[in-house]
Amino acid sequence: MSLFKRLMGKQIPPRETDPIVVRGAERHAASVRRPIDQVWAVVSHRSGKLPSSSAVINQIVAHCGISLVPVSQIRTQPARVLYWQTRKLDPDHNKLVKIDPSNAILAVPTINASFLGNGKRVLAEAHERAFGYSAEIDPITFKGTAVVKSVKNAEHDGAMISCPVSTRDPDKIYQRVLNNQVDEKTVLDLRVPVIGKTIPFVYLKYRTIDDRFSNTNDYAEIATPEDVFSDDELKAILRLADEMRMDYGELDVLRDGPGGRVYVIDANNTPSGPPNHLREGQGSIAIRLMAAALVKEFVQTAKA
Length: 304
Hints:
By secondary structure, the protein is of the alpha/beta class. It has two domains: about 190 residues, ATP-grasp fold, B domain (D-amino Acid Aminotransferase, Chain A, domain 1); about 80 residues. The chain is about 20% helix and about 25% strand. The strands form three sheets. It has a five-stranded antiparallel sheet with strand order 10-9-8-11-12. The chain has a four-stranded parallel sheet with strand order 2-1-3-4, covered by helices on one side. Strands 6-5-7 form a three-stranded antiparallel sheet, with no helix packed on it. Helix 3 crosses helix 6. The chain is globular, with a radius of gyration of 20 Å.
């Protein structure tokens, strides 16, 4: 039985899954065995800076043979430009602080140049357009338990509250509680890399219920997208990335109970990784699959 069918029936406890084979990993990796030898310019709010050492893009481009160079140090036309924006959001929490790239070198395809921002409200609106529903609720009229968290991304400050409440904090977003439990003590988060129009695989990240809002996993592994999501769900996930103008990044997804709907709860345009406590040997597979997707979406298309 496929992982997807099992997820749609009864969610799986950690360490009790069958070994997951990411089909075609070696075949896809073959497409980037020869270094590409390209230079990509990086535009960042931190002038002259590159992605931090924890950013997974460093491992991906290194596997491809692509060099990242700050735009201020570019002397010849780069093959691509990577828009790397990690600064906190502007006051309305909806848009990233935009940079005006006046350098003529930037008249080349730019990755994530039009990204709308990773604020929770931007995500909720894009989710509604892509899926036809979202997890956001009105805490003043909703009755029951809800999750409240910062509208900013990557705060990991989620908390449970009882609704209705008398006032709404404008710096918070309120969402229905999603049941991503796989057993009495464990929850399952789905981390979905998106590279262009490709989802190369899905991370399955298991945590204890007490740590459900943290970023520390008890255990993690990778699976093929088709083993985790239906075709319609995969199309909706890519529609959401397109709605957010996210060319490269990772999405955090929860399934609301066995056989339930999926909800994208976070969008990260500057992801770190691979995640902690990933199954031994799967980190290198993940990098190879993302490298192959990067070549397919941003190198081969540029040559076409």
